[in-house]
Write a structure and sequence with these properties.
The chain is α+β, with helices and mostly antiparallel strands. The protein has one domain: 2-Layer Sandwich (Beta Polymerase, domain 2). It is 36% helix and 26% strand. Strand 3 (73-75) and strand 4 form a beta hairpin. Helix 1 (8-21) packs across helix 2.
């Protein structure tokens, strides 16, 4: 699949907009470009229920598709999941229930400072 015509900043703005449109809570954006080549930004959002988590992820996909970007993947699809991941090339969106977000604490994981050798 070819690279999208949208910049990482544009993809990020569209993803956040899609989450806000369906009442995503505690939306956090992490710039991880200095830590990995896999993506530039990670977005973490909380949904109020498993159904809401799924709906948030689905809305991100639909919003980006309507703006010309075909997502690379969507994991955790279905109403029974407490975590969905949407891969938008340079932006990865994680939508989780409050419990899953507290348990996995992705913000803390990506806050690790590299050690000097």
């Amino acid at each position: 699949m070819s690279q999208p015509n949208l910049t990482a900043d544009q993809i990020l703005a569209l993803a956040v907009e899609a989450l806000e449109d369906v009442k995503g809570d505690k939306i956090t954006v992490l710039n991880v470009s200095k830590h990995t080549d896999m993506m530039d930004f990670m977005v973490i959002c909380t949904g109020t229920s498993k159904r809401h988590v799924n709906g948030l992820g689905q809305n991100v996909i639909e919003h980006l598709k309507s703006n010309g970007l075909q997502p690379l993947g969507f994991e955790g699809r279905g109403t029974g999941s407490d975590w969905v991941l949407v891969d938008l090339h340079d932006v990865v969106v994680h939508v989780m229930t409050e419990e899953a977000r507290a348990f996995y604490d992705l913000e803390k994981l990506w806050d690790i400072k590299p050690e000097s050798i």
